[in-house]
Amino acid sequence: MERVGILTSGGDCQGLNAAIRGLGKALYLELGGGVELYGIEDGYRGLIEGNYRRMEPHDFSGIINLGGTILGTSRMPFKLMRVADDMSPDKVRNMKDNYRKMRLDCLVILGGNGTHKTANLLSEEGLNVVTLPKTIDNDVWGTDVTFGFQSAVDVAANVLDCIHTTATSHGRIFIVEVMGHKVGWLTLHAGIAGSADAILLPEIPYRVESIAEMIERRSKDGKRFSILAAAEGAISADEAKMSKKELKAKRAAENFPSVSYRLAKDLEKATGHEIRVTVPGHIQRGGSPCPYDRVLSTRFGAAAAKLVKEKKYGNMVAMRNNVIVPVPLKEVAGRLKAVEPGCELVGTARSIGICFGD
Ligand code: F6P
Fold it and tell me: Are 158 and 277 spatial neighbours (Cβ–Cβ below 8 Å)?
C-alpha cells in the first residue's frame, strides 16, 4: 500500500484544485486499491500539527474549475522553520515525526518559492518529496511557467481593459498596480495584453522624468489618457542604488500605502496632471482558473503522480519548451526566476512604443 500526503502551501492561486484533481485521479487510476491519499490541512502548518484527512476518489471530482484550495493553505516562512515559537520548538522535527506517524511513503507539495526551500529541506532530511510549481508570480526557477500565472494575467489584463474605458471618458492618467512580489512577469504580460502605455518592473528601475516625458508626448499627440502598469515591486533608479536597509528606511519614512501612490505623487509634481491609482490586489489570485491553467495543472498533477509511482522523489515537475520534465529540488530551492531586461518580450513591447521608464 502506497500512502501519499498532499499539501498546498504559501499564497493560494488559481489551479491548485485542478492540480490536486490531476494528481488524485491519476494516482487512483494507476494504483487503484494500492494507494491511500491524505490531504494535509493548511499547508506545512497541518504537517507540523498533525492535521490531515483521508481523501477518497470522489474528493477529486468537480473541482477543476474551483478557485482557492480545498486543503487550505498558510504562510510558514522558511527562515522560521527551525526557530522555536508558540507553535513548536522545532517545526522540521514535528513535520518529520508526523510524516512517520502518518506512515507516509511520499509527500506531494504544491507551492511557490518559499515552499520549495522547505520542500528541499524536508527532502534533505530524508522525506520522499515531489513538488508542483504554483504561483501567480511565475518566479519559480526551473520551469517556464507556473500554474496560476495565466489566470492572474487574465484578471490583471481585464482590470487594465476596464480602466481604459473610464480613463478615456475622463481623459485621466491611471496607475494600475499589479502583484508579482519581487519580479515583473505578471505586470509584463498583463501590461502588454492590457495595452498599457508604460510597464514598470522591479527588473528595470524607472526614472520619473522618463515616464513624465511619455505622458506629455501622448498629451501633445492628442491622446486623452495614459495608463501605467506598475509592478508592486517596481523601483526607481535612485532606490536601485540603495542597500536593502536604506530602501526599507526610506519607504517607512515616506509612509505611502504602496509604490504606486508614491509614483503618482512624483508624477503629479512632474506633469501637473492628476493621477489615479487602482490596486486590484488579491483579486488577481481569486476566482476560477482559466482553461490554460486547468490544462497545465492537470498535466503537472498527472506528471507528479507518475513520479510518485516511479518513486522518483526529490523532484519538482516543470514545464520546459512545452514538455513536462522533472527538475531536482536542490536546483530549484533558493533561486528566483526574474524577467531578463534584454529578453524578447521586453524588446517586443519596446518595439511597439511601450515605455519602461528607463
Ligand atoms: O506570491 C503571490 C503573491 O500574491 C504576491 O504576488 C504578493 O506579493 C503576495 O503573494 C501577497 O501575499 P499575501 O497574500 O500574504 O498578502
Answer: no
